[in-house]
Amino acid sequence: MSIIVTLTDQDKATLRTAAYGAVSLMAAADVTGKPHRASTRGALALTSVTGPVGHVLAAKSRDITLTGKSVAELADHVLPALTAAMDTLARQDRVEADNFRSAVLVAVEATRTRRDDPSPVRDEMARKITAALDASTGLS
Known about the structure:
Blueprint: H1 9-28, H2 35-46, H3 51-58, H4 71-92, H5 94-110, H6 120-134
């Protein structure tokens, strides 16, 4: 049986900011010099998400808030948004929380421009994103 997920406009803005913010963090961590390519690949991955989360991420909206003059400032905004998004979804429907987590992690992986090019910087940013997703209190 599927639970209907009810999200406020603020919840939807948080989900979009978190998901697209994770892609932005990965693009910023792309030290190979192709951040636009990384960003495009990650954003395209987010457009393929299904279910209620997919509808939220696909919506045309201007409520995505990605500000900061440095990667640190962007991370200060995005990483808590990832945890908040997971909390919001986990309280309503564990399946949709898992869907969101998977979508973000697929988008993070899609940002890699070359699979055979190891990058400690990208790997560390991906680890921070995963930790933020897993820090949700609603996951226990």
